Amino acid sequence: MSPADINAMAAPPRTAALGFIFASALMNSVSFGIMIPILPNLIKQFVHGDTAAASEWNVLFAATWGAMQFLCGPILGMLSDRYGRRPVLLISIFGLFVDFMFMALAPSLAWLYVGRILNGITAASFSTANAYVADITPPERRARNFGLIGSAFGFGFMIGPTLGGLLGEISLRLPFLVAAGLCLLNGIYGLLVLPESLTVERRAKTLDWARANPIGSLVFVKERGDLLGLASVGFLFQIAYNVLPSIFVLYAGFRYGWTPAILGMTLLGTGACQIVVQTLLVGPAVKRFGERGAVLTGALFGAIGFLLFGLASKPWMYVASIPVFAMIGLMQPGLMGLMTRRVGPQFQGQLQGANQSLQGIASILGPPLFGLTFAWAVRHEQTLHMPGLPILISSGLLLLALLLSVRVARPAVAL
Q1: Residue-wise pLDDT tens digits, 84-95
Q2: CATH code for the domain defined by 3-193+211-408
Q3: Are residues 410 and 307 in contact, defined by beta-carbon separation less than 8 angstroms?
Q4: Closest Cα to residue 140, out of 335, 299, 4, 341?
Q5: Which residue in 298, 396, 351 sits closest to 126, CA to CA?
Q6: The model scores a pTM over 0.85
Q7: DSSP H stretches of helix in 312-347
């Protein structure tokens, strides 16, 4: 059998696998988005309508979710390096089904909190999904496929809150049941058709438990100096991006007086613009300017977009800035393409686990950083006149990421 015949036979499974990975990433992002309009109200029910208590619990739930991402991403990534991507992905997806059922049927706040812990653990499978993409994609096409998978977050940002809001009008439990059903179907589909992407000979020979933790995974990045700078750029990006889920609803309501319907349409437009960038522009941009060019362009437009958001004194100014901000969608795929070129196949899961840990840290630090800054700006609005201060901070973080990228986002030969 010729190499061409072998490649022809291998092509269909790779296409099917990428579609499944996209669906898995979509479920993860929906699991996050569906919480936005539903979880605070469900918590409020459990605390007998006490808004202040519900707010305190909601902060705890958000921080816990980020902590689980921080702790579990490296473990799942390393397990996938040793035993293959397929079993880790399937266990995570079925675990997500169990988690949604858990929260749908939770009889108390404590049980709901346990469900949120499970959600943070199972949603950490995104690190394994990225490793799968690196396995099945040639290095020169990885940025494009990472952009495709990243667009799942845009779809989830559109679908999750919308689905949660509509179904929540019927019952606050119904969105969880629907999400559980989707995860179950996705898991069954994967069980039947998902091929393994990491052959036995390319797997890690042993499990290094000293590295199967957040600190160990970050040491893994530090030991590879050319990864450390790129990981730092990614960390700055993750913290900056946290500003929108942290304060957007409160910010838009305070500054523009937007109703829930207008907020929903704005989120829909933001998600749609990012999907266009990540599905249609990443491939051509990388082909023309390279992965380094995609990172620099995404960081520049992201910094400008946040600057425009923070300075927008009129609603139309904010809306007009959305297409500019959407170009930030070039940054993460280019960054992931550069990073995956710097490690071999047996370390892709560990690399993605380290990225997941950094994202978890950002998810822990971002909400209090931006939430407290927004509260301070609102209290001093009469003298400061800067309700967009936290968004301006995000612009500054991306500007710093841009300057760092100029130095560290160098092309590398794929291993």
Answers
A1: 888 888 888 888
A2: 1.20.1250.20
A3: no
A4: 341
A5: 351
A6: no
A7: 315-326, 331-340
Q: Quote the DSSP letter at residue 195.
A: P
> How far apart are alpha carbons 243 and 116 in whole angstroms?
21
Q: Which two tokens stand for residue 405?
A: 């990228």
In order of 172, 198, 243, 244, 371, the CA distances from 250 in angstroms are 22, 45, 11, 10, 9
Write down the domain spans for the chain. 3-193+211-408
Report how far apart, in Å, the C-alpha atoms of 269 and of each of 218, 320, 407 are. Answer: 36, 11, 34
Q: DSSP of 26-71, one letter per residue?
A: HHHHHHHHTHHHHHHHHHHHHTTT-HHHHHHHHHHHHHHHHHHHHH
Maximum CA extent, the chain: 77
Question: For residues 149 and 155, what is the distance between their CA atoms, to the nearest angstrom?
Answer: 10
Q: What is the pLDDT of residue 305?
A: 96
Nearest to 228, CA basis, from 407, 108, 98? 407
Query: In terms of residues, how long is the chain?
Result: 415
CA separation, residue 295 to residues 39, 231, 331 (Å): 34, 13, 4
**Top-confidence residue, 321 or 160:** 321
d(CA 296, CA 293): 5
